[in-house]
């Protein structure tokens, strides 16, 4: 099972994860975002190139004032560079098999790799619902101040992979 960057050959029409917004995104909007370099989409597919799961990555920044006080002590800048896992979804037929966890780990590994080339301080996620919030919280993501967004310092991510 290998995650790869979305290609034209991938069949997105039959994708359904149970969340309309995530289904519509992969079917209608992801190509535009990829083409405009607004996001990179990584996918898991079957032997017929049907989508099983996907996630997206983008770069951004967060205001220093949004970061929890105990995590911003050594930071001097008003905007902190981050990578956003903007979407993460698993087809309903494959849910319950820890594929979400596999996607998240793959995304975090890619973010660590890119951090050697482009500075980024943390990973941000935008949980779409309470279930997604609980999922990310299990991996150590914490809520940003006055926001639904969740935050995981890259230093924490790096320690997760040091144990491998």
UniProtKB/TrEMBL annotation:
Per the record, what are the reactions this protein catalyses?
A: glycyl-tRNA(Gly) + acetyl-CoA = N-acetylglycyl-tRNA(Gly) + CoA + H(+)
Q: Which InterPro entries match?
A: Acyl_CoA_acyltransferase, GNAT_dom
Q: Which residues form the N-acetyltransferase domain?
A: 1-164
Which molecular function terms from Gene Ontology are attached? Answer: acyltransferase activity
E.C. number(s) listed in UniProt: 2.3.1.-
Keywords of this protein's UniProt record, alphabetized? Acyltransferase, Repressor, Toxin-antitoxin system, Transferase
Q: Which Pfam families match?
A: Acetyltransf_7
Check the record and name the PROSITE patterns matching this protein. Answer: GNAT
Signal peptide (residue range): none
Listed name of the protein: GNAT family N-acetyltransferase
> Which organism does this record belong to?
Sphingobacterium corticis
């Amino acid at each position: 099972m290998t995650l790869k960057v979305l290609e034209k050959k991938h069949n997105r029409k039959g994708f359904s994860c149970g969340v309309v917004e995530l289904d519509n995104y992969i079917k209608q909007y992801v190509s535009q975002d990829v083409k405009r370099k607004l996001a990179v989409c990584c996918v898991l597919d079957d032997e017929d190139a049907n989508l099983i799961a996907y996630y997206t990555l983008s770069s951004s920044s967060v205001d220093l004032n949004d970061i929890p006080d105990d995590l911003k002590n050594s930071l001097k800048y008003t905007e902190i560079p981050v990578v956003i896992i903007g979407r993460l979804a698993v087809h309903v037929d494959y849910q319950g098999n820890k594929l979400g966890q596999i996607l998240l780990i793959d995304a975090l590994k890619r973010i660590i790799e890119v951090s050697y080339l482009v500075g980024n301080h943390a990973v941000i996620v935008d949980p779409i619902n309470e279930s997604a919030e609980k999922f990310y919280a299990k991996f150590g993501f914490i809520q940003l101040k006055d926001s639904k967004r969740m935050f995981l310092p890259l230093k924490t991510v790096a320690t997760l992979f040091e144990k491998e």
